[in-house]
């Protein structure tokens, strides 16, 4: 089975390679040059070394000399193909030598570790401390000019690249379980190295070869060009170029022809190498990293009517759907979210990771990265204003102004290269026409507001110089900088330890009442919710499954999932580990089963649950639940009986 | 910062010692009698004997190395037999010309590489991106010595705009504009490959950085996209690119060997090529040592620049 899988893998790898148009072009050019060079002795060519003073420097397309002749009247076409043979042979040999010794050093060094490893790596570092080609020159100087010596020199200076790459991979592999298993089964160290590790390292060796072979051909050609490689009458492409240089002014073709061939050779190898790398190591694929745009794309099929809640609510989402394009597939991360937040209200949005709660929060101000994300349906109103129809400038005005954010991990959300003060001042000046000293003053006040001792000095600090709690206080200060009316807080306490969590929550609660802001508070932790929010909405698999006043939901949850979430949280702020107590996990995005998404994990699931969509139904004036059989005390007693 | 620089300077000592050791070992591998190799094939037996004494060539290798190192530290790099002058004088004179060429190439490469990389990341998959990617590919595949010849053909021979060789005009030159005119073609040629590498890396670094959380924060603050990209993202990308610029210094210094030969620039690279063909071993040794040491300093400068950009590295 494994062999068929492997051969299939190979076929698809080749297929992938051919899919890449540039790599294919490279392959075609390379194969053509290789073939021509290979069969050059069989072709009806003139003797590459036969001089003919009468026919000096004939231009291309002359009679009998397709590419013309050089200064000694030798046929350029014949010399070109023979020269290419030499250049390619030398480049390939140098690559093989460098790959062999370099990989060997890398394997041994990575596998041996300890002093042998550091000794070898210091040696490699020393070699790499030289400018690349200079070392080759020194070696040629000692051995004397000549093609074989140039080959050795070029091979030697490329050994470090192989040694380093292979060592890195070997180090990683040597720690893996299958190596331990092999060791326990009594295999010798050498056997493990060559039967277990080497096959796994091979792709890296191939990748490194594909990146270096172009260089090696270039550099050997370079040495020959300088007269330090191929010596007459032997010629490679480099020495032909060198010959052409002396007649550059009156017969440029003598130099241009071999130069173009070197260029084609190296370029085709580079193209092919890039293609091979993309196939063997998809992580490096250039296209994999798409640049996120400034704002989430909005691609709604229809613009829904303004919902009734939009009028008095600070924030109102209705039917919001955000999707991610994965290749050809489009996966909906949230499907039809309805939410509203009143003035000075704090709404807690709760759910496990992957439930779509952060996507919901980030959709509001268009902070979901596009590509791959985009908003495909629904509407978002902020104080009656349609955000999905607003232009980019308006969104920029709102961001960090009336609507501000606090994110999860303050270490990654603050810019590491700017001081806290600079970042605060920047936030202030983006929305207020203040001069820098005034803004600095304001920044200092903000830090004081969030209880950071010694605020003036702290302004000079870089984020990494502060503790996690301090950093999050800075982020909160930043969110308050322009008197926000809505703060979107995405797991603001998750990255902090428990005591700090409690402090931050208290601070937020206090400031929210002082500043009269509304908050959308996203968390996976019901313990945190109870401390802060007035109402709560529970999300599961991209949908809201229950909402209502926090107290009521906590006391008598109606959805079985809510029940589980609450049961998981014995103590404030320790929800993280406990959440795993719900056996199973949420369905992968886009693989939501028909009917109730929670059914596979639900103790009360019946057949009816797995049949069609289940709507969010009102329980009473303030509560809603998406469950056919909402919990109540009576029924629970029934089931347990 | 001063303490950091001092620490880095101290860390240079073992690296420089390593350089000398490698150069020494390579030279020790000279086939045949080293004294004859150093003095050339016309040396008299007396001279050979004197040199053997002087360099301790009959003694064991470690002793030879220490003796040689001691001489180096006193500034005695030996005497070039082909030029009949002290190696160090010649090398330093040539090195200043190389520094002008390599330095300008590196500056050109940094400026254009960074610009091209940033623009190409910002316009990812757009036309600018494709054009930049295309030129990077061409640049990385063209042998610099061939490109040099082409540029000479076009700009010096056909258009007659710029001089094809040398550092100054033979008659009436010698001032700065004259130098710049002579510098332009070789510096551009030398910069092409490094520009390509830097552009490629800058593009990748920018794309990486633009996905970071702090960029989302910058956007959430309501900053203009220009500020987000060209200040917040570019500064972070620069931190990743600066060490690469340091490494490119090595390729530029090495590439100068070709370019100086093509443009007859009176630098150390052209000197080395000549010294190798005349088998002037001491001259090669001195040249290699000085260039390698300067590369180490370029890398140090890159390190210092990087840590001045990134406070997390200043420790
Ligand atoms: S609808 Fe059915 S399966 Fe879903 S939560 Fe309710 S009882 Fe469980």
Provide the descriptors you would attach to this structure in a database record.
heterodimer; A: 641 residues; alpha/beta; MetI-like fold; eight-stranded mixed sheet; five-stranded mixed sheet; 50% helix; 12% strand; elongated; disordered C terminus; B: 315 residues; mainly alpha; two-stranded antiparallel sheet; 77% helix; 1% strand; globular; binds iron/sulfur cluster
Structure description:
The complex is a heterodimer of chains A (641) and B (315). Chain A has 641 residues and is α/β, with parallel strands linked by helices. Chain A has 23 helices and 13 strands. Among the domains of chain A are: 241 residues, MetI-like fold (Orthogonal Bundle); 65 residues, no CATH class; 90 residues, no CATH class. In chain A, helix 3 runs antiparallel to helix 8, helix 5 crosses helix 6 and helix 7 packs across helix 8. With 315 residues, chain B is mainly alpha-helical. Helix content of chain B is 77%, strand content 1%. Chain B has a two-stranded antiparallel sheet. The longest helix of chain B has 38 residues. At the A-B interface, helix 4, helix 5, helix 8, helix 9 and helix 10 of A face helix 1, helix 6, helix 7, helix 8 and helix 9 of B. Iron/sulfur cluster binds next to loops of chain A. The site of iron/sulfur cluster (SF4) has 13 residues of chain A, from loops.
